Amino acid sequence: MNKPPKIKTKDKILLTAIKQYNKVGVQGVTSRHIAGEMGISHGNLDYHYKTKEDIILAIYDKMRDEMSEYFVAKKEETSPIERVHLLLIQLEEFQYRYRFMNLDVLEITRAYPKISALLQKTSEYRKLQMDSIFQEFSNEDYMMKIEPEIFDQVQHIIRIIITFWLSQREVLANEKFTEKGSMVKSIWAVISPYLTEKGKKEQAETIAKYGYTQLNLNDEE
C-alpha cells in the first residue's frame, strides 16, 4: 500500500499556525508558540518564515487559492442558483476552517499593511465575480431587473455578511442565527426579494436538494 506523501515542514508550520490562531487568536500566538507546538526549534521555523506577517501571508495565499476554486468550480448541468448555493455552503464552511482571519480581521489589517492591501485587492476581484454571477441570474430570468444603485447595495450587504459573520456570532451570542447554515440562509434572505417566480422555484428546489450545510452536502454526494 502506498504511503501518503510526507507533509513538508513549511506546510506543517502553516497547519499548526492555523490551529493555534483559530484557538486563541492571532495576537495570542507567537512563532515560538508554533515552534513549541510542533516540537521544532525556533531557528528552524525562522528559516521558513521570518515574521508572523510572513506566516499569515502564506496562510492567506492558501486561503485565496482554495476560495478561487470555490468560485470557479461548476458542476455540470447545474443552474446559476444551484452553483451559488453550493458556493455559499462552501464559503460558510471555509469561515470555520480559517475562523481567525474573520474574527481578527481588524487587528490583522491594522497590524499588517501587506495583508490589508491584499484583502482590498481580493475584495475588488470578488465583486467582479459576483457581478458575473448575478448577470447569469438576470440572463436566465431568475432575477428581476434592478437599478444599479440597489444592485451595488445588495452586493455590499452580502460581502459584509460573509466578512463579519463569525464576528457577529461572537458579539451576538445570545441571538438567533448561530447554528451552521445560518450564513447561507441570511444571504438568501437578502437575494430572495429580487428573484423572479422562476428564480424562487429554482431556489426552493435547490435548497430541498442540498440543505444549508456541508454535512447535508456530503450526504448528497
From TrEMBL:
DNA-binding region: 30-49
Domain of life: Bacteria
A Pfam family the protein falls into: TetR_N
Domain HTH tetR-type: residue ranges: 7-67
Transferase in keyword set: no
One annotated GO molecular function: DNA binding
Entry keyword DNA-binding: yes
Keyword set, alphabetical order: DNA-binding
The protein, known as: TetR family transcriptional regulator
Organism this protein belongs to: Algoriphagus chordae
